[in-house]
Design a protein that fits this description.
By secondary structure, the protein is mostly helical. Helices cover 56% and strands 10% of the residues. It is extended, with a radius of gyration of 23 Å.
Length: 124
């Protein structure tokens, strides 16, 4: 249950709880609408997935418990472009850090790994 300590400032806790509940229901509904069994795919072929792929991807549940994802080419292209943008942003950030002198050199890979292990956890 949501209370005033977990609600965003200025948002009524009852409204926050209702919005969270509706969001969870929406996600469950969306997952169900996008899921097809592998038996359906065997019987119907790609037609079993075609109506489920409305949001760019569909999930196929295998009899072995494995899950598979089927993507439209457009959705895959969109995901790959987003990944590319993220990589470019990370490289630019690294270049800025290097230019500003925010880097360390290590004598060995082991020394670098030890320094990484000594860093505080991001959760702390």
């Amino acid at each position: 249950m949501t209370d005033a300590t977990t609600s965003p400032p200025g948002l009524d806790p009852a409204l926050h709880e209702r919005l969270e509940r509706e969001w969870r229901e929406f996600l469950v509904d969306l997952t169900i609408k996008r899921t097809v069994s592998d038996d359906d795919v065997r019987r119907e072929g790609i037609a079993a997935v075609r109506d489920k792929i409305e949001y760019g991807h569909a999930r196929v549940q295998g009899a072995d418990g494995e899950w598979y994802v089927v993507l439209t080419e457009a959705y895959l292209r969109e995901v790959m472009e987003e990944i590319d943008r993220g990589v470019v942003a990370l490289v630019r950030e690294s270049q800025a850090d290097y230019a500003a002198g925010r880097y360390h050199t290590y004598a060995s890979g082991e020394e670098m790994l030890a320094a990484i292990d000594a860093l505080p956890d991001e959760d702390e």
